[in-house]
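ARCHIVE CARD
Drawer: 12
Card no.: 0347
Subject: one protein chain, sequence and derived structure
Cross-reference: see card 0346
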Amino acid sequence: MKPYCCILLLSLFWIPCSAMQQTETPQRLADAFDVQGHRGARGLLPENTIPAFLKALDLGVTTLELDVVIAKDSTVVVSHEPWMSGTICTQPNGEPVSVTTQEDFLIFEMTYDEVARFDCGSRGNLRFPKQEKMVVSKPRLRDVIEAAEAYLREQNLPPVQYNIETKAQPAWDGQFTPDPETFTRLLYDVLVEAGVKDRTILQSFDVRTLRVGRDLDPSWRLALLVERDGDQRIAANLEALGFLPDIYSPDYRLVDAALIREAHDRGILVIPWTVNTLDAMQRLKALGVDGIITDFPDIGVQLLD
């Protein structure tokens, strides 16, 4: 279309043109944009640790994103892997855990007292050179919630959400993790006891966990995580799940206007992971996502209105 035609159309049909523009860019469904601190603030402090979660709160995130596994004594432990990571953890004797032997240190075979003896912060993380090194252990979920809620009260900050991923998959059942029913129930009980269940989201790549969560408590908000190398069709992923989740949470590189529109047409929020640059964050927000998950909440909070 030639420039003078555009001017004429805008002057004569201002409202229709505006409406047309809105249909081309999906609008967000959430009342407010949600900035989630991935594993707390992994780019700044050791992942999935209480200092990282408090840092994220201090920066102003609206949601703390974290992962959980289960210890031998049924303790819900905050950890991305069901073992001591060979890239960040150190044994109680001071020797670093290696990548080749990390699965010898299964959390599912340790009591929490044994888990707490490992240091998973002083080695730092090569992927995040700005991350502050410190001696810190993997916390219990109940301790994370207690520390976060106390900090919110002390600092007179508004309540936050907890977006909790169950690290589960069928091949791990009985070896690295309990069965989905046991896993999900243990998590649910901690959240109810802590009084924060209504501010939590259960997220997982494992559809079994989400199905159990739905059966356990239909009011529990659920998020389906989607890998980049899996099926990229939203309809196929929802069909595999068997119902509509509250949130569709894909690798951010999968997100385009068509995906957002398809999710929003079904009444589903779109919150992609893990978005770590301001340009990518701004692009996704302009497309109409309802929030982001980021390792750098110090950058992410710039998107809050």
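Annotation on reverse: DSSP finds eleven helices and nine strands in the chain. The CA atoms of residues 238 and 244 lie 6 Å apart.
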